[in-house]
Amino acid sequence: MATPNGxxxxxxxPSFQSAAFTQIRQGIIAQGQAAxxxxxDEGAANQLxxxxxTDRAGRQVTWNEAVETEERExxxxxxxxxxxxxxxxxxxxxxxxRRFPTLTPGLPPPxxxxxxxxxxxxxxxxNVEFVELWFFTFAGCQATKTITQLxxxxxxxxxxxxxxxxxxxxxxxxx
Length: 175
What we know:
By secondary structure, the chain is mostly helical. It is built from five helices and two strands, in the order αααααββ. α1 (22-34) crosses α2.
């Protein structure tokens, strides 16, 4: 997280030669004389400036680390959001994807594709009669497949038989 004071590199140093820093400069001069070092007013202001620049450099390091951490967290959150979106898109595509059998090179295609409308619908088409579209949908073809996989006794009880072109046939349309 960013420091509350803002970017330290944008700060300008105060004028340590101003009247506001007179007492601090005099204290530095007194300490220097006590240690046997001669420091004038300008030297004391330079020492204050060096101390301020050292402090600002430390704050700048902290600021840069906070900015890098913030950017890294933002990038990680964006990457996570992107992964979630991709996962949702793939799930949606998988739901929409038709379930056709896979073809293997060098082998003949499968004989049963799973998309076969019932005989009654095909007979009506051959006679150029009206046929509801449901018979040709995935659900209609699956219903036909389910009924044709039953043995003849179960098939008779599962769906009604109707007379089409003089033959008893299963319409297989759920009503």
